[in-house]
Amino acid sequence: MTLPLSHPALSATDPELAALVGAEEQLQADTLRLIPSENYVSQAVLEASGTVLQNKYSEGYAGRRYYEGQQNIDQVERLATDRAKALFGVDHANVQPYSGSPANLAVYLAFAEPGDTVMGMALPMGGHLTHGWGVSATGKWFRGVQYGVRHDTGLIDFDEVRDLALKERPKLIFCGGTALPRTIDFAAFAEIARESGAVLVADVAHIAGLIAGGAHPSPVPHADVVSTTTHKTLRGPRGAMLMSREEHAKAIDKAVFPGLQGGPHNQTTAAIAVALHEAAQPSFRDYAHAVVDNAKALAEALLARGFDLVSGGTDNHLILMDLTPKDVPGKVAAKALDRAGIVVNYNTVPYDPRKPFDPSGVRIGTPSLTSRGLATEHMPAVAGWIDRGVTAARTGDEDELAAIRAEVADLMAAFPAPGLPTD
Length: 423
Hints:
Layout: H1 8-13, H2 15-30, E1 32-33, H3 43-49, E2 60-61, E3 64-65, H4 71-88, E4 92-94, H5 100-111, E5 117-121, H6 137-141, E6 143-147, H7 158-168, E7 172-175, H8 186-196, E8 199-203, H9 208-212, E9 225-229, E10 240-244, H10 249-260, H11 266-279, H12 282-304, E11 308-309, E12 318-322, H13 330-339, E13 342-343, E14 345-347, E15 361-365, H14 367-371, H15 379-395, H16 398-413
Parallel strand pairs: 1-13, 5-6, 5-7, 7-8, 8-9
Antiparallel strand pairs: 2-3, 4-10, 9-10, 11-12, 12-15, 14-15
Helix pairs in contact: 3-11, 4-11, 5-10, 7-8, 12-15, 13-15, 15-16
């Protein structure tokens, strides 16, 4: 399938860049995208991202700007914040953070001082860089202590988390991460935060869409602050939000602006508003549950083919595979699958003996393929392609990878992606 020419103004002004955009559109159309943090946004979100709102500077908040001419911008931002509050049932929402990492940095600025102890899941166990990991600014400016998962189950040991929190008395406790295939017990984390006197921050960047669609429990009744990106399962633009109880609203807003950043990206705020509107529709609930159904079906099909899945499966959109039993390093497998038209990312697994840039695992997820309309009946075929691709990675069979790529492209042609040009 060859996509039609798009972006005529860009093509006329900068054909080199336009060609790269077109090549990416073609790649996204032809390949099976299994990276769990990626998705397809709607045409409406794409259009909102490219409006004349790009032309405005709007330091401050709605009704309290440092620039004039904000009559429309204020309404756009209020629309986004009101929709966030309604969708997630929160007292307060800030839609200005540029991305997930700056949003988390704002939480530190609001509640901690440099050198304070903070607690989060260790990065190799599935946590995020900004949860106090050493190579991040959050680990350099704050004293990070980390919890992990059990060797035998791959699940969080809450007795260990409680003992660590009571011993270290962190100012902040982060729950959530980037490679957690199981339901997060927000209530258990909240109890530990209360006992230790910490502020609980639920980082739901990966699962925000599942929460909005009722396919994962919400942290809102339990967490002091909820941090999230607006893409991934929420199917919005590359942005972020911070949501909180009313008592923390002023601290959060002050930390975002003027604490960390100047004017918000108004075109992104508009696209966030569109995505939140879409996520409030009944069809989005169907989508969120279909993401989980597909992930569970894919996990079952992979287990049937002898794959080792961390924690034995999944409760959400994400599957973490340890390829050690397949005798293929994660990086080798990921690059081979990419040549086969199956886009994944290599990833550490808990207690991984290999280095982070050459780990044992591969991380996959079902948000993108679900956005294209693939369902549980397609997951055995997906698992079969992955199995064949991993085997070809081990044996160096490039012909097999090429054959898989052709089969993948045939199926993708039958399921056009949202937001991409069509014939």
